[in-house]
Amino acid sequence: MSSARVSQPFAIVASLLAALAIVVAVVAWNLDEVTSSVRVLVLLGLVILAAVLALGVLAERRSDERHAERHAELRALAAAVGSDAASIADVQQRVRRLQEGLNNSSASGPLRYINKHADQVFEQVQATINLFAMVDIAAPVPPLRHWAVSPDALNLLVQELLAVRPRVVVECGSGSSTLFLALVARKHGLDTRIVALDHEQEYADKTNRLLAAHGVDDIASARLAPLEDVTTDRGAQPWYAATALDDLSDVGLLFVDGPPGGGNRLARYPALPLLWDRLAPGASIVLDDTDRADEQEIIALWAAAHPELSGESIATEKGAYILRRP
Question: Is 307 exposed, middle or buried (0-12, 13-18, 19+ CB in 10 A)?
Fold first, then answer.
């Protein structure tokens, strides 16, 4: 590991104290009335001050080293989350080791930042472990989080799947969520068909290969639906090609995690207007990324257009919201 660096504020204070002590010592040393015994005491004081500063520097270096160690462990833990089924035991071991290290630390200096945010990492780890415990894994699983749905949001989606037991699931966007919904449906014997819309051929193909590798391509698929202008009560805006919806009906679970916004404001708004007549009674609509202003406005617009819907905000990593149709 690279050598730790003393934090800048401590180094400045230490330098000022040392400079002040040297000035005082020089002035005192040159006073005519100062005896030799006083000079000895001045020298002794400088030695003690130097020892204290050296101990402070060592303590600060050690604190920085502990911070670097915990930060490295957190990065390794984040990289392990959602990698594959074989990583569960490793992830659990990493969590225990990191928790022990944090509990045994004084949590001073930079470690306070680590302690403050460690719970967020542990929540995602726990959510990932829960996901893997619910399904049978036959092949590697792509990482979760970042652009993909976070483990805690995916847990929420799976819970809704099991509660609603829909005949048809429609996803706006495809990927890890498509796989886990299919795996859970297969594991729990649900008579469910899962259709994911993707505006890019590359990602649709990648999702379909993933589904085939896990043996669930008979109940789930990613469908190419290029972005094109669609018409809603807000006028025309880019969304998935409406022709991709032609054979879809009795949709009991709608997961809205696309298309990406980019320069398209309220990019996900058309999902409910265009699929409303295809929703089954008791359907659930789950919107991801609701920490963002666009998604919060979309929720308000949907709720205003359909006051019969009940809503629930869920505190996931990126924010999620569930609307339920009576």
Answer: exposed
